[in-house]
## 1
Amino acid sequence: MSEERNIYESLIHWLRPHRTIPVTPWRARHRWDVSPLRLAILTLGLAFFGVGEALLVQSHLGNSPWVVFAQGVQLKSGLSLGWATFYISCSVLLLWIPLRERPGLGTILNIIVIALFLQIGVDHIPMQSNFWLGLVFALLGIASVGVASALYITCGLGPGPRDGLMTGIHQKTGIRVGRVRLGIEALVLVVGGLLGGRIGLGTALFAGLIGQSVAISCGILARLTRQ
């Protein structure tokens, strides 16, 4: 009984969320401070992000807000989901100009790698028709996006286009970051839904769990890299 309790306490310790972004050994000094290890971790994280989003799409239970929007654009334009995501990311990056946000290597790779692996994922991961398998796919997707976010954020090579838009608006207006993010994601969700993007249980699960998924992943990274 004591051994089982120790295992339980150890698991709880490792899954404890982290309140801040951990400082990792691979963290860059500036947004263009490239090294082979940093580049590998960044690319791995962004690839995981794309695959995680693909798992949500293929769960057939609903997508994350930005992918709802991308799917709506896909349906109306005839583009693939990957290309729709790529063009949306480029368009969001243009909105950085009046906000005077500066991209980094992570910003550029975010646009390319996520779109690429999202498309690879939807091309090769089977679409689910069974609710319970779809639910497993959705939860795995949320976990993957959480791990991916922790990996690429801790590289310190610049935010993705959407995150940069959020922080840029926050800095220009003084509106709280959480409210800015909520407003942006609500807008793209509504527009994407009107265009035909899939909204459902997966969308709600993503909204409710993604913050905790990122925080837990950051906590695990912090404990793994603690000196």
Note: The chain is about 75% helix and 0% strand.
## 2
Amino acid sequence: MSAMKASWCWRTDLREFRNLSDQRKAGFLLVLEWFENFRLRNELEAGREAARLFWKTEVIRDDREREDWQLEQWESAIQWYLNWLDACAAAQADHRSLPERLRVAVNSAGSRRGLARRTKQCYSAWAARYALFS
């Protein structure tokens, strides 16, 4: 019998991280929630490629002017998150949130049943929203 993988949550680890002030933590939380929503909406794996795509499409936009302090703080937040992912990989811990794990499970079950891609997306979104609700 194999041991279950530990599941880590970046929000909890950020809240307990001692090297950041409460103000910096609040700023990091804002941009990391934005990044996670972008990543999940586009069904991207957590990692550097998702961070690059997020930075290109959401942060550096022609229609929005960003302050230098914003870019510096957001870059620090993304770097913190990527370091956190590396720590998860080193500890062999699962970094995915409950809604993300549910989406993968429902998508897999739907594939075994031969459901259409949009149907699997709809069912997995329902399951993820219910998990957050409960």
Note: Residues 50 and 114 are 28 Å apart (CA to CA).
